[in-house]
Design brief:
Helices cover 48% and strands 15% of the residues. With 896 residues, it is α/β, with parallel strands linked by helices. Strands 3-2-6-7-1-8 form a six-stranded parallel sheet, with helices on both faces. Strand 17 (600-605) and strand 18 form a beta hairpin. Helix 17 runs antiparallel to helix 18 and helix 19 (475-523) packs antiparallel against helix 20 (528-543). The chain is extended.
């Protein structure tokens, strides 16, 4: 694109703008603290809109008793609030359904960060606003800067107050307009003292804490910065949509361009200093040249280190792709309003400057409107440091790839010699040109250039007069020879470059495939030891040597995995491993730290912490692709180890939470459900001991029956607790046998018959029934638990029905009661541990610890069956529990 050619709009910017079609517009009135006048300003502007004939509605406004603010709501239509009951209190919340039904041209919704009451459609008010905007409603809202999610920690450090109600920064970034409502800290404190913000007592406390002058000054700066950032983002969006070439110096933006050389860290630190001086956002970028061979492992490591350093210093990072670095960087600067560009310049580029080919010179010619900061190299010596080249060295004998090119020229010489002897006036130069082209296609650029030079010499010496001399006899021969040389060089260079690109593409594809396979295996490792083993095996395969993974344990690092075999590390090796672990730098063979060690130790740096150390045995063979693959594996392995450790910690924490909940529930159960029958037994026994001879026989029998009932109740509770312990520990192993479920159901009904009292148990069994593989004892206990649950939650005189029937594939047991039923919201929870309704109809019958149905579910599922609950089943009452057990063979439907 020429400088005079008009720039086309950015398609992404146009697409983003098109997505806003049909949506409403969101305007945020942003302030530094409560009391600056956000709501007042919003209402004042809304009143002016109303006076101009626009449809303005107040969805919700919090005036906090301020008379000036309340006066502005007069004359504006206000939606009624929606009452929501919460913990015995009636809360008046914003009615989003009424707002959507009314759908005004402009809706005012105060306090953007407010948390809605439980039971609302959305937990946060900003989510209500997003739904309104998506429906095409224009919304105005208010927000204090301390409620931004990214600033919560900053505000806490400033004020000592941690905000619980926050708004994601992305929501504010999508706002169409942000208006800052600003007053000085002194003016705000004056308003506070006059009682215009809080009541006097609250105002005095706030003035001494949150509203201190230094706090307000810091919050004011945060608000102004956020508003400036919004304006800057809006400017960039407008430039992209209009296709306007940047940069516009409305605000400073810094771009640091790094490569795979020793200057990368220096450039990043220079960019950081500029960002601090200019108080500007900055980005660290690297350009990958798609048409060139992959960079070396050392260069790739330098780039990765520079990117990580930039992130640690607060920069954004990105990778750009293109053949022309200058054009890619200039285009990015123009589209993103970059005003300051930091690049490096090595000391060995003077010849490039003379030919106007140096990168700095090219950037000065193309980067219009950008201040260019050129950082020169401090020393011509390459920076020291570890390189995988000592770990995975290049294969010796690289000169052998030039031999085929020499062979092609030799073959061409023989053919030309034969043709020269056989025919007259033959064009022998084309034969040598074919040899050069063959070398280029099959061997690459450098062998092709060698073949072109050699062909030039041989052709001149053997076939041009005077022969057997490098002297050129005629101008025509000179022109022919020069043209031949030029064509040979150009053809070889182009064909060689094409092959290099094809080989580079193949290597990239192979590296990506190998890395994807390694990543899948590492991702599949759920445990840290499994991840370490997978990483050791992948490293060993990539380097062709031995590899070990050391992980921290009890304040030390120890060998956790190895491939192909575990090795014992010496004192020097362990010292290098500890150095790599403690300092986060490579150590050992081939590095500048403890190079006498027999291994090279690389720290496995995860996203948030160091996960371990990788030990790689130096090998004399390898290539650059293996180097790059090993570097990528180290990064992937570090993340996999960190993820496995976090997963283990999360699992352990979850197990502790479950154990704590179980312990608490057991304590509650022991304190109530177990002590109650014990108290009954103790009371009846004491009465018999003290007054036995004086009591009549019926009274004595009643007390003995009470002791028996309470002892049985206590026995059931203890049994349930033991059964649940078995289920939790995986100790339930069903002993399945062919079982007639009618017999099991009858046995369970007989066991609970005495506890039915005034309830009726109806048995509905078919005359014939298929058997199923089941454990009769476990199934009987499950049915007893379900029947006792039905007894506990049904009234005297009610009916309980136990039915057994079958279909083609299953035998089903259904137990129904006429109790009050189970609320729909609790149907999925009734089979969880310690889940009970508020109160059973008969506590003596024993709703118990809330384990009965959970145990029944565990027993049924252990036998391969299913259990489910349905409620209500008749006139809003009743519960049906269904147990389905599969048959060994399906029964044809015509036999049922």
């Amino acid at each position: 694109m020429t400088p005079d050619e008009p720039r086309r709009p950015d398609p992404d910017a146009l697409l983003l703008e098109a997505r806003k079609a049909g949506r409403g517009r969101l305007k945020v009135f942003l302030g530094m603290a409560p009391g600056v006048g956000k709501t007042y300003e919003m209402l004042a502007q809304a009143a002016r809109r109303k006076a101009d004939g626009h449809d303005v509605v107040v969805g919700l406004v919090e005036t906090h008793g301020r008379r000036e603010t309340e006066a502005l709501t007069v004359g504006l239509e206000t939606l009624a609030r929606r009452p929501i009951e919460h913990r015995g209190h009636m809360l008046m919340e914003f009615d989003i359904d009424a707002a959507l039904a009314r759908k005004p041209e402009l809706l005012l919704v105060d306090e953007f960060a407010h948390s809605n009451a439980p039971g609302s459609r959305h937990p946060k008010r900003w989510q209500d606003v997003e739904e309104l905007v998506a429906a095409g409603v224009n919304v105005w809202t208010t927000l204090n800067v301390q409620h931004l999610e990214s600033l919560v920690d900053v505000v806490w450090k400033i004020t000592g107050v941690r905000q619980r109600e926050t708004v994601p920064d992305g929501v504010i970034s999508r706002a169409d307009e942000i208006e800052i409502v600003d007053i000085t800290p002194a003016e705000l404190r004056q308003r506070l003292a006059e009682g215009k913000v809080y009541v006097p007592e609250t105002a005095r406390l706030a003035s001494d804490h949150f509203f201190k002058p230094e706090n307000l000054t810091a919050l004011r700066e945060l608000a102004l910065r956020r508003a400036a950032q919004a304006v800057d983002d809006e400017l960039i969006g407008a430039m992209r949509r209009a296709g306007v070439a940047g940069p516009w110096p409305a605000g400073e933006r810094i771009l640091v361009l790094v490569g795979g050389d020793a200057m990368s860290d220096q450039l990043v630190r220079t960019g950081r200093r500029l960002a601090e001086m200019m108080d500007a956002p900055w980005t660290v970028a690297h350009v990958e040249r798609s048409g060139r061979a992959l960079p070396s492992a050392l260069a790739l490591a330098k780039v990765n280190e520079a990117m990580k350093l930039g992130e640690q210093l607060g920069a954004a990072t990105l990778s750009l792709t293109g053949d022309d670095i200058v054009a890619v960087v200039a285009d990015y600067c123009g589209k993103n309003n970059v005003t300051q560009l930091v690049i490096g310049k090595s000391r060995d580029s003077r010849w490039r400057e003379a030919l106007r080919r140096s990168f700095a010179s090219a950037m000065m010619r193309h980067a219009e409107g950008v201040a260019l900061h050129v950082v020169t190299e401090r020393s011509s010596e390459p920076a020291g440091g570890p390189s995988l080249r000592q770990v995975v060295a290049r294969e010796p004998g690289a000169w052998r790839k030039y031999l085929p090119g020499i062979g092609y020229v030799a073959a061409a010489t023989l053919v030309a010699w034969y043709l020269d002897r056989t025919f007259r006036a033959s064009d022998l130069g084309m034969i040598f040109l074919a040899a050069v082209f063959t070398a280029a296609v099959l061997q690459g650029l450098r062998p092709a250039l060698l073949a072109a030079g050699l062909a030039f010499l041989v052709y001149n010496y053997l076939f041009l007069a005077p022969r057997y001399s490098f002297v050129i006899g005629s101008p025509t021969d000179l022109l022919t020879l020069l043209m031949f040389l030029a064509v040979a060089l150009v053809t070889g260079a182009l064909a060689g470059r094409l092959q290099d690109q094809q080989q580079a593409t193949s290597r990239r594809a192979a590296a990506i495939s190998a890395l994807l396979a390694a990543s899948r295996r590492l991702s599949a490792s759920a445990k840290k030891l499994d991840a370490a083993t997978a990483l050791a095996e992948q490293l060993s395969a990539a380097t062709g040597g031995k590899a070990m993974i050391l992980l921290p344990a009890a304040g030390e690092i120890v060998t956790a995995a190895a491939a192909p075999t575990m090795e014992t590390l010496g004192t020097q090796d362990m010292a290098a491993a500890r150095w790599a672990w403690e300092h986060g730098e490579a150590a050992g063979a081939g590095t500048g730290t403890l190079p006498s060690a027999g291994w090279t130790f690389w720290p496995l740096q995860g996203i948030s912490a160091r996960a371990g150390v990788a030990a790689i045995e130096p090998r004399p063979h390898g290539d650059g692709d293996a180097e790059r693959f090993v570097l990528a594996l180290l990064d992937q392995g570090a993340i996999a180890l960190e993820r496995a450790e976090l997963a283990a910690e999360a699992s352990e924490a979850d197990a502790l939470r479950r154990s704590e909940r179980l312990r608490t529930a057991l304590l509650n159960s022991i304190s109530h459900d177990l002590r109650t029958p014990l108290a009954g037994v103790l009371g009846a026994t004491t009465t018999l001991i003290e007054y036995g001879p004086e009591l009549e026989r019926p009274v004595q029998l009643d007390l003995l029956e009470s002791i028996r009932d309470e002892a049985e109740r206590l026995n059931r509770y203890v049994g349930n607790l033991l059964d649940m312990t078995k289920l939790e520990g995986g100790g339930v192993a069903p002993r399945t046998q062919a079982t007639d479920l009618r017999d099991v159901a009858s046995a369970a009904a007989d066991r609970v018959a005495r506890r039915l009292e005034k309830r009726e148990l109806v048995r509905d069994y078919p005359p014939t029934l298929s058997t199923v593989p089941a454990d009769p004892a476990l199934l009987e206990q499950a049915l007893v638990n379900i029947l006792e649950n039905a007894i506990a939650y049904s009234a005297d005189g009610s009916r309980i029905e136990a039915a057994v029937y079958e279909d083609e594939r299953n035998v089903v047991i259904a137990i129904e009661d006429e109790g009050k039923g189970i609320p729909t919201a609790q149907l999925q929870q009734v089979f969880e541990r310690f889940q009970r309704l508020e109160e059973s109809s008969d506590r003596a019958a024993g709703a118990g610890t809330g384990l009965g149905l959970a145990i029944a579910k565990g027993f049924v599922e252990a036998m391969g069956g299913r259990i489910a609950a349905a409620s209500p089943i008749h006139e809003g009452r009743g519960t049906r529990i269904l147990i389905s057990l599969p048959k060994e063979r399906a029964t044809p439907h015509w036999l049922l």
